[in-house]
Write a structure and sequence with these properties.
The chain is an alpha/beta fold. The protein has 2 domains: about 1-90, no CATH class; about 95-450, Purple Acid Phosphatase, chain A, domain 2 (4-Layer Sandwich), CATH 3.60.21. It is built from 13 helices and 17 strands. The protein has helices at about 10, 20-50, 60-65, 70-75, 105-115, 120-125, 130-135, 165-170, 190-200, 215, 265-275, 300-310, 415-430; strands at about 95-105, 115, 120, 135-140, 175-180, 205, 220-225, 230-240, 280-290, 315-320, 330, 340-345, 350, 365-375, 380-390, 400, 445-450. The protein starts with 7 loop residues before the first helix and ends in a 5-residue tail after the last strand. The relative contact order is 0.15.
Length: about 450
Amino acid sequence: MTGDGPAALILEAMPATTSTHARTRRRGLGALVATVVALAAGLGAGALAAWPGSPGTHDGPAVEAATAPSPATEASSPVVTPSPTEPAEPEPVRFTLVAAGDVLTHGPVNRSAASGDSYDFSPLLEGFAPYVEGADLALCHLEVPIAPEGVALSGYPLFAGAPELVRDLAGMGWDGCSTASNHTVDQRFAGLTATLDALDAEGLQHAGSARTEEEAARVAMYEVSDGDQQVTVAQISFTYGLNGLPMPEGRPWAVNVFDADAADARPIIDAAQEARDAGADIVLASVHCCVEYRTAPTDAQRAIATQIAESGLVDLYIGHHAHVPQPIELLPGGPSGDGMWTAFGLGNFLSNQDDHCCVAETSSGVLLSATFELFPGEAPAVDVGWTGVTVDRVSGHRLHALADIADGVGALTADEVAARHARVADAVGGDAPEVTEPVAALAEAVTAVPRVES
């Protein structure tokens, strides 16, 4: 696919693409060559002979040749003083982002990762790692809390994840995770604290929950640098509820919650405004709601996303919780007025779900890819795409990109892979293109801004 269609910037982010910096250098060299050629054509051989460094000339400044011409050349050649080279116009900042669905470590997932007295999730994750590690910014959704010290691991209904899970997510290439979900306080405030401590220890940013009121007030930020320019990306994360568990006592700020039943997106919109006020050029909204195991968004889910799009404060909506892939659509609104890309639900990333327990669609999820292009202080151009991801539950919960395993792998036959691929494509819809290769980094650096003082 070529041209300026919806996939253009995504395709530019593929590994074969020339980087922004290489293009800038080539453009600068081309301008210099063009200048020399123009001067050679306009000045003639006599004047070119007086250019500094030319054979048979002195090494003085060019202005000396202009103010003190020789009698032999004064009558035959006009004196031309080279004009200074105009500074190159600044390039926009460009970067790639990927975001995935629910990391949900049921008991069988933990058993697949068991390694002696510890856990190693890297064999489960490594098959999909290339699709994560190449992006400038990679955001996961950690739906389960990490087990506090002295608490045994557990699965549904009250999750307690292994600390090694965070280590291995970091090793896979994730830069941060949203943490607001209906399971955030499964292990009460101690589990929330253990989760953020584990993320901090691995250098991963987090959004959606907090250990202190001061941390809750600080927006999760990333600084994206490209040459002399820098833009700030904010992530906000909200959940529809906590499965009936109470908010930690005396800590109403511990988890970001909104009323999905009332389709009230105001808390999310207010948080987006706070992110803008804090200096964000781009705001990403991770929203955990609404009805599980349903591909079509509910009326409330659409109303929430529509309000957020119409606010003009959010650049990209990243949905979670349904455990099945849902549509990716461009809703009217967004900061530029050209629309807000909305991934209603990315389905599962790592889980124990498929048709043995649930609906068949739970076996697979979506990796959302996005390419941003903007000048600091301006609304970005955003293009998105999707990559189907699935779990081979029977073969030890191994993750795979569906496009990579058309011939089958492990316990998944070619027919089963084709069926899963078709279900994901049907759910996502036709607004965004499929991406079947890992995206590549476009920026020079991405740095997470700590939410707590060191």
